[in-house]
Design a protein that fits this description.
This protein has 316 residues and is α+β, with helices and mostly antiparallel strands. The protein is 19% helix and 22% strand. It has 6 helices and 13 strands. The strands form 3 sheets. Strands 1, 2, 3, 4, 5, 6, 7 and 13 form an 8-stranded antiparallel β-sheet that branches. A hairpin with a 4-residue loop joins strand 6 and strand 7. The radius of gyration is 20 Å and the shape is globular. It starts with a helix and ends in a 42-residue tail after the last helix. The C terminus is likely disordered.
Length: 316
């Protein structure tokens, strides 16, 4: 179905509409052979709290951004090459449901869908695009990915020393290798992680010692990069998850929830759909059960749901 959309006028219009929604804050997305496969709103677990983000799935990249004005404007565009993407389902718990990991070499995080069906649809479509892309390129799946950061709210004390209580003065920091929330004293060194950055990054003491003394781990995790014992500026806060500090524009509530739209399915290959515009969220999101998150808002449903994805039972 995706091949049928490659040179279609409808696909050209959709991609142009996405570019217009990002405006000058985004980069051009139109290129030969690129197809917009689907779009919708997912709730992304950021460092401090879950937030609604608009996602666009193409046949070669996954794009997401902050919602400024629903259905009109997005910013903070992030582009993730699908060749690097790996997904892993997360088991439901009392606080959060319908979640999964999105992992790449440079950035990994957790997202939640509004329903289990939408989760299955998103994961199935992303996995299908990844499989098709790797098959055509002949490349192997990426094995090493950036760690998923533990949310600030999940750690009231340092996860390394188990002693330091986090306060306004005792700030939280994240190990860039394992994602743990640690105090300044337990993450005073940095280590070169080439897949994430050309500069040495903050790591906890446990990861520093392991990466420094285990050559096999060093080669596989950092590509043989050397450790750096330089002290970090412990007065500076973590900045790698800078989007978490972005201001959110409140959207009018009371709107009904729309389901994700996947353009490669028969149900959306109609004249009516071809004339549609890119959709985006309202602020009525629902992802995790028992939370106050806003519910994702997107467009029409697919004709049939992909097979259910077995949960992995891991925690965020």
């Amino acid at each position: 179905m995706v091949d049928r959309l490659v040179n279609s006028e409808a696909n050209t219009r959709r991609i142009a509409s996405v570019e217009n929604c990002f405006g000058s804050s985004g980069v051009p997305l139109a290129m030969q052979g690129r197809v917009l496969v689907g779009e919708g709103v997912l709730t992304k677990m950021c460092r401090k709290r879950p937030k609604s983000r608009q996602f666009f799935l193409f046949n070669d990249i996954l794009v997401y951004g902050n919602i400024v004005i629903g259905k009109k404007k997005y910013n903070k565009q992030h582009i993730m090459p699908l060749e690097e993407v790996s997904l892993e389902s997360i088991a439901d718990n009392q606080a959060y449901r319908n979640g999964w990991y999105i992992r790449t070499t440079t950035k990994s995080f957790v997202v939640f869908a509004a329903t289990s069906t939408e989760k299955q649809e998103w994961m199935a479509h992303i996995n299908k695009c990844v499989e098709d892309l790797l098959r055509k390129s002949g490349k192997k799946p990426v094995e090493n990915h950036a760690a998923v950061w533990v949310p600030d709210t999940d750690a009231s004390i340092c996860m390394h020393c188990k002693k330091t209580q986090f306060t306004f003065i005792q700030r939280r920091h994240h190990c860039r290798n394992c994602g743990a929330v640690v105090c300044a004293g337990c993450s005073a060194k940095k280590f070169l992680l080439p897949q994430q950055s050309t500069k040495a990054l903050r790591v906890c003491d446990a990861c520093y010692e392991r990466l420094k003394h285990v050559p096999s781990s060093l080669d596989s995790v950092t590509g043989g990069a050397a450790a750096s014992g330089n002290k970090l500026n412990t007065t500076a806060g973590d900045s790698s998850n800078d989007e978490d500090s972005d201001e959110e524009t409140a959207s009018p509530g009371g709107e009904s929830h729309d389901e994700p739209r996947f353009y490669g399915d028969n149900s959306v290959l109609s004249a009516a759909d071809d004339s549609s515009t890119i959709t985006s969220p309202s602020s009525a999101t629902s992802a995790p059960a028992g939370s106050s998150l806003e519910a994702p808002q997107v467009a029409s449903t697919v004709q049939s749901s992909p097979p259910a994805v077995a949960p992995a039972g891991s925690n965020c």
